[in-house]
Write a structure and sequence with these properties.
Low-confidence stretches: none
Helix content: 25-40%
Order of helices and strands: EEEEEEHEHEHEHEEHEHEHEHHEHHEEEE
Number of helices: 11
Shape: globular
Oligomer: single chain
Length: 434
Amino acid sequence: MTAYVIRNASILGEQAADLLIVDGVIADIGPGLTAPADAEVIDADGLIALPGLVDLHTHLREPGREDAETVETGTRAAAAGGFTLVHAMANTDPVADTAGVVEQVWRLGREHGYCDVAPVGAVTVGLGGDQLAELGAMADSAARVRVFSDDGKCVSDAVLMRRALEYVKAFDGVIAQHAQEPRLTEGAQMNEGELSGVLGLTGWPAVAEEAIIARDVLLAEHVGSRLHVCHLSTRGSVEIVRWAKSRGIDVTAEVTPHHLLLTDELAATYDPIYKVNPPLRTADDVAALREALAEGVIDIVATDHAPHPSEDKDCEWAAAAFGMTGLETALSVVQHTMVDTGLLDWAGVAARMSAAPAQIGRVTAHGRPLAVGEPAHVVLYDPKATRVVEPSDSVSRSRNTPYRGIELPGRVVATFLRGRPTVLDGTVVEEVAA
């Protein structure tokens, strides 16, 4: 028997209680629990207990770009951030567009993962946007894929998007759309506005995102299927999703931590660390995103963790890759932007970073409440700690964090995956037992 007693944890930021974990399950919750003789006792006084976080949008890069990240290094970063499940996006090399590739990623997660890995399947062959991938075969594979996305590229062909939405209805899948009208964003480098003109960088108009979302919610309504909007970034997109939900359309949406905090003004530095897809938007957009996440119009926070090797970022802006890392800082950014501002309580954070993403991804073993009999996916978090972000402290293989030198609140002290510690005392456990 493997047993842990977590003493005096604040459950979802509310009442303090002990949690008894036995053989991967929460065996008891309450004050002053009696610990089994061989149990390890963890003092959680002053710490918040949250359910293991679930990320619907992670780039692990393996296979093909192991110089940027691997399943092992990416899941180490996830565990350090409090995640017990991540969904691995399909833009690998080879693309995860067949049962064979998604099963490879799934097995890498089982063999080397510091958290569970749910592969995301490509919508189209090779992300080419011309032909549907083997959606049914990926759904029936050992990986049991339920989320499909060409993330990094938009499924811009309306007929193909309609067919994909129709196809996934058979197994309750969801199409996660990267909303970017390609003709409106040719050569785009940053948010379109007065600043893009001043800087001489090709603008990325908000309407390029909003037009695709508007089209796709109507398609989802027409065929009666599930649509998920990746990394929503503008006030206009929020209003379209709000309208769609008011009509009863089955649409969900995510926002990234960086779109909750950072604005397009950072592009004035010409530092490619701030180059991301979709681009950082205006302060007004940021305010709208925070309000929509609090309201529930935006359902979840997803990291869009996009690691890159240094040579892909240490160059001029136009030549640099899009993307930022985010797994290790996500909970701190959400605390800073949503909890410390009074927009969300910790139960709301748990809903948007654990329960809802698991439900969207149709994962039943994660996103569960902290309750007796549930799998022991548990995070202990110190909301009173502070840290200045230093890229060299990251456990990801890549260092392209946009928060370098920024003081953020909070610290993940421990993460448990099915009762096994993957992080203790703020440090990733080097040997995670099978």
